[in-house]
From TrEMBL:
Record Gene3D superfamilies: 3.40.630.30
Keyword Transferase: yes
GO molecular function annotations of the record: acyltransferase activity, transferring groups other than amino-acyl groups
Keyword annotations of the record: Transferase
Xref: InterPro entries: Acyl_CoA_acyltransferase (IPR016181), GNAT_dom (IPR000182), PseH (IPR020036)
Annotated protein name in UniProt: UDP-4-amino-4, 6-dideoxy-N-acetyl-beta-L-altrosamine N-acetyltransferase
Top-rank taxon, per record: Bacteria
Domain N-acetyltransferase: residue ranges: 12-168
Keyword set includes Cell inner membrane: no
Native species: Caryophanon latum
Pfam families assigned: Acetyltransf_4
Length: 188
């Protein structure tokens, strides 16, 4: 069993994804343990990835961030503003290193939510989680998301229809959870 890593804030970097990250993210996205919890589980072709990545880099409605810990990149978080008027959008994230220290997913989520709510000033972050992705279901509940709904037998995966859980969190809910998460994540 992995033990939670003792995390010091000064060892964390949370940076914008750039073209220099394109190959790394391609590698991460094509790992089976990542693909199997995405809507599209197929192996991604390089040309498709380049187009997706470059379109996201120039889209001012999209934010892509990379989490580094102790100088090593561990994961990607992305957010797409889907409704300007209502100031809301959808996020997704993953830890691309299978043997990452325990706590990296929580750390990535913490920094992305802090960025979205406190720098970009987003009002509401939404998420969709496949029913068999227990880690993500647990994560969303732990950081303060509320389950808003369920899309029953919504997508076909491995010959079976799967449910999709719908979650959201508002800025005020994030601010209430933030200090609790900091106590859980960080040491002095």
């Amino acid at each position: 069993m992995k033990h939670r890593t003792t995390i010091r804030k000064q060892q964390v970097e949370f940076v914008d994804a750039t073209k220099e990250h394109m190959q790394l993210i391609y590698k991460w996205r094509n790992q089976l343990f990542i693909r199997e919890v995405m809507y599209n589980s197929e192996h991604l072709q390089w040309e498709y990835h380049i187009k997706w990545f470059e379109n996201n880099l120039i889209d001012d409605q999209v934010y892509m961030k990379i989490l580094y810990y102790e100088g090593m990149p561990y994961g990607l978080a992305n957010f797409r503003l889907t409704d300007n008027q209502s100031n809301l959008g959808e996020w997704g994230f993953y830890i691309g290193v299978k043997e990452a220290p325990k706590g990296m997913g929580m750390l990535l989520g913490y920094y992305m939510l802090q960025f979205l709510f406190e720098e970009v000033m987003i009002r509401k972050v939404c998420a969709e989680v496949i029913d068999y992705n227990e880690r993500s279901l647990h994560f969303h509940k732990k950081v303060g998301f509320t389950q808003d709904g369920l899309l029953r037998k919504h997508i076909l995966k491995n010959g079976e229809y799967c449910d999709i859980y719908l979650f959201s969190i508002f800025k005020d809910e994030w601010l209430k959870m933030k200090s609790e998460l900091e106590k859980m994540l960080f040491t002095e």
